[in-house]
Amino acid sequence: MGMFEFIRNLADQQHERVVPISVFVAILCLCLVIGHLLEDNRWVNESIAAILIGCIAGAVILFLSKGKSSHILRFSEELFFIYLLPPIIFNAGFQVKKKQFFQNFITIMLFGVIGVFISASIITVGSWWLFPKLGFVGLTARDYLAVGTIFSSTDTVCTLQVLHQDETPILYSLVFGEGVVNDATSVVLFNAIQKIDVTRVNSRTILQLIGDFFYLFSTSTALGVTFGLVTAYSLKTLYFGRHSTVRELAIMVLMAYLSYMLAELLELSGILTVFFCGILMSHYAWHNVTESSRITTRHIFAMMSFVAETFIFLYVGMDALDMEKWKMTRVSFGTLMSSFGSIVLLILLGRAASVFPLSAFSNYMNRRPQRSPSLTFKHQVIIWWAGLMRGAVSIALAFKQFTYSGVTWDPVNAAMITNTIIVVLFTTLVFGFLTKPLIYYMLPHRVIDKNDSSVGSKSPKEDMALPLLSFEESVSTNILRAKDSLTMLIERPVYTVHFYWRKFDDTYMRPIFGGPLSSPPEC
Amino acid sequence: MGMFEFIRNLADQQHERVVPISVFVAILCLCLVIGHLLEDNRWVNESIAAILIGCIAGAVILFLSKGKSSHILRFSEELFFIYLLPPIIFNAGFQVKKKQFFQNFITIMLFGVIGVFISASIITVGSWWLFPKLGFVGLTARDYLAVGTIFSSTDTVCTLQVLHQDETPILYSLVFGEGVVNDATSVVLFNAIQKIDVTRVNSRTILQLIGDFFYLFSTSTALGVTFGLVTAYSLKTLYFGRHSTVRELAIMVLMAYLSYMLAELLELSGILTVFFCGILMSHYAWHNVTESSRITTRHIFAMMSFVAETFIFLYVGMDALDMEKWKMTRVSFGTLMSSFGSIVLLILLGRAASVFPLSAFSNYMNRRPQRSPSLTFKHQVIIWWAGLMRGAVSIALAFKQFTYSGVTWDPVNAAMITNTIIVVLFTTLVFGFLTKPLIYYMLPHRVIDKNDSSVGSKSPKEDMALPLLSFEESVSTNILRAKDSLTMLIERPVYTVHFYWRKFDDTYMRPIFGGPLSSPPEC
């Protein structure tokens, strides 16, 4: 009887999905418990724990399947880019301390955008020069450009788990902000590289690449800002909370997701869009919902991001023992290891070549009379170190470049995937392991003065002046001030831009889109 | 160059998912806004609005695709049973007023379990007898049994949106509780039917069916209870909130989902498991987390359930205009309509045959001296009416029975799918439309006395007695009471069982698994 078999097939088909999901969810729960128990541990953090648990789970599955396979779910960029990345990036935007983020906006952009360009160029040129010498051949020009981008995307989770927002606010906000902008930049740059004609690389191609990049960057940001403002405005005018808090929450979650999907659909950068949507939502929309919705959204987004992150690290750990890829890699072990070594070297070099010059430039931009440079050498070393780890974005981009839906039959491509996985494992485990001791050594606890590390923090004098500069002042005073501020703009550009943005925000934006009229000290 | 095409293909492949998701999320947002604006409307509720919007969207897509297709996502039971149903049922268990649910436990079980058996028998026998007479032939014995179950699963969302928990607490809790148990019973019964040998239907088969059913029912419940207790216990002992509220939330969400998946994996009823897991979690685990996690969980689960529900109604509306199925149906329009009419008739009849006798039985079980029957005729009519609507579970079960992964090539099967969709649309739109007026007519506002409708509510005397019956009393008093309670058990079984459960809960369960030691009036 056909019907009966149909149903049996259907049941089997359902189990095909049910088994891996169950195993994965169970391992995730285990990760959470272990992460909780390791919370006070000095050496191991959550990401490292998740990767190790993933490796162990991979080994167990490899053993149970008699050496056939180590993973229960194939790594798919779809899963990663459609379901896991959006909550992480949205939450980053939603939870960012906006005031500090915008005060350090230019420095963050320097590190996050120009830094990626520098680092990607060095890695591309370096690998182009080194790989053939090491006997690793077969990559195309586009592949080398992609390699540069793949290994320029940093993963700052390890560092952020060690830095304390209250103890080193500026350092935290720089590392955090750079991490997000860096992710977005790498993905946008990666997509821009896919579009250019690599057969004729000349100065025009480079210009075209940069043009493409800035077009993607600005349109994506504009889309995110639009979505955030529309959500804020509709929440304010319709006031959903009157009837049910559930609708407010649903609208916020769905609009955030829609912004990401729409950006992807328009071939923009979903990451940037959803990041700015998150910033706008927490700046305006969040103030238009009921009290319980405010608490809930904070936690909902943090939880989704947390689960997605743990999921990714587990995944990477499990994928490390993927026998198919190891077998496919026909490159000798020595060549593989030397190419891996050269990539790690190039990462260290590329990061140094971007962080130290850019820090010096940032110190020049943020200069103040009679003050020591705001980014000390120790801070620069920590920023350099924070960007050494490679994570899920690298893996996802590598899969996108070197496989077709997670499968590859080309030995060179397989070797590049293996290389990427080793680099991610090595940097996360070894560098990640050393992060806590390094930071404790560089910034001993209790010694840190809150005002010591300050790219944009206010001096006492400014604190006094700010409340007086309200937007209710008379015109004449404003004109007088305008002269002062022109001087200010030249002397201290970053601070001044931020100051005028706040005035504009208070006068025009908040009355329309919501939010308290006088900025609270931290929001 | 192969690589380039690979990436293009990949991008197209991603878009294949991105477009439907974007459209669906956008329509969902629209639904939320329209539902909010219709909140004060007397006639249209959210489900009806979602179905109508789905129909309109389907028509637009049909028009844009030039008559080819009306749906952007194929209805799949995987989507429904793995992703949409679990949050709805879990939330039902999590938000249920446990005290009233357990006070009315026996009545709810009567309606939800025995009621489904009665109704399914009547619909099976009735359709078996009527369909061939109407010229609708080709269904097997198993199909008829399945039809009985498919049309016995009720959708009480429409009624619950009209009934007010504060005005008619007992009626609300009965309709709500029955709705959940009914869903679970239908699915369990449906699965039990798949297993029996229909070629020899005799009294042994029936007994086997009932045995299978109760085995599934009890094991699923036990699994759910176990999961709930394990979660509560681990939250209490590990106290995740010490380090981060995010882990508490993640553990609760993941464990709930894991309970569902594990039940499905063990071929039990995930619905029942996750329902009881929800009850246990809100009864114990919820008290072991931080204050902000409590607020967040309440809203997170409500939101997920709300979105999933709206999603399903949209889906059903969109699927109604599926041209493929309409074309496949080679049965004449007259036959289709008469079979549809007979199904609606059988639903009305089957529901009446279960509600009225069972209400009488329930009134007998809950009898009290010198009191009028607790379920008045008006209440019985409302309960009868509340169970007339058919919803997503019917559709999902019909797809499971009559299609293979959402596709069918058999005209009889296609006709049954079409029939199910018409029945769901008709009952939700027509009966749902009449629900508000009916209830306003049967239970005029402000006239309802809270103590009037009372299956298990306490009489003033009991209210006085309860606080004295604490577990700290001396043994002798307890023995004396035991005699009294034996009499009580015979006279008023429901109340007594609940009373002893509460004592057990206070003495043994709460100290281990968490929760306030003296039961609050409503929890």
From TrEMBL, chains A, B:
GO biological process terms on file: regulation of intracellular pH; sodium ion import across plasma membrane
Catalytic activity: Na(+)(in) + H(+)(out) = Na(+)(out) + H(+)(in); K(+)(in) + H(+)(out) = K(+)(out) + H(+)(in)
GO cellular component, one term: plasma membrane
Main location: membrane
Entry-linked InterPro entries: Cation/H_exchanger_CPA1, Cation/H_exchanger_TM, NaH_exchanger
Pfam family membership, one: Na_H_Exchanger
Keyword Cell wall biogenesis/degradation: no
Keywords: Antiport, Ion transport, Membrane, Potassium, Potassium transport, Sodium, Sodium transport, Transmembrane, Transmembrane helix, Transport
Recorded topology in the membrane: Multi-pass membrane protein
Cation/H+ exchanger transmembrane domain segment(s): 27-438
Keyword tRNA-binding: no
TM ranges: 21-38, 44-64, 105-131, 213-233, 268-287, 299-318, 338-361, 382-402, 414-434
GO molecular function: potassium:proton antiporter activity; sodium:proton antiporter activity
Subcellular location: Membrane
Similarity-based family: Belongs to the monovalent cation:proton antiporter 1 (CPA1) transporter (TC 2.A.36) family.
Database matches in PANTHER family: SODIUM/HYDROGEN EXCHANGER, SODIUM_HYDROGEN EXCHANGER 4
Name listed for the protein in its UniProt record: Sodium/hydrogen exchanger
Organism from which the protein derives: Durio zibethinus
UniProt gene name: LOC111276429
